[in-house]
Task: structure prediction
Amino acid sequence: MDQIAYCNDLLTRFEEIFYHELSQINARCKVELIGSDFLNDKNITGNTVEELVENCIKAIKAEGFVKEMTGKVAGRGILLKLNMKGCIHLPKEAKLQAEGIEPYLCPLANMISEQIISKLNYMTTYSAGMHVDSAKGECSIYCAIYKDMDDIGKVSDWTKE
Result:
């Protein structure tokens, strides 16, 4: 039995139902804790977002969840852009796209966002968008990261990042 395929099928069905019940906009903000607990017992450290993200990526790659992954802070310091290749969840995203549903749940991004909040005391984070290219086996996740109230008012055109 392919356990990863089984779990991806479960997540796919969940996301399809959730998407249709809540609409894409409402569904995105309701799934940000899915996967977030995985790194909590891995003793990830870092004094900056960049250091913490780099160490999260090392742990995620060591688990075999993704073949390649990078993270970059941009967009006036409120954008964390994650690029991945060979993610174990890519088949899930491909199935959603085939059903006409824009992918909106990334457990790996949720893992990293949770670490930013819990280790660096950021006020909030959220997945603002995903671009999935199933043919190339790649995806990009755009996460908003807000340290404090001063950051929440910042705006950036992430399409230029």
Observations:
- The mean pLDDT is 91.
- The domain at 3-160 is CATH 3.30.1380 (Muramoyl-pentapeptide Carboxypeptidase; domain 2).
- The longest strand covers residues 124-133.
- The chain has one domain: 3-160.
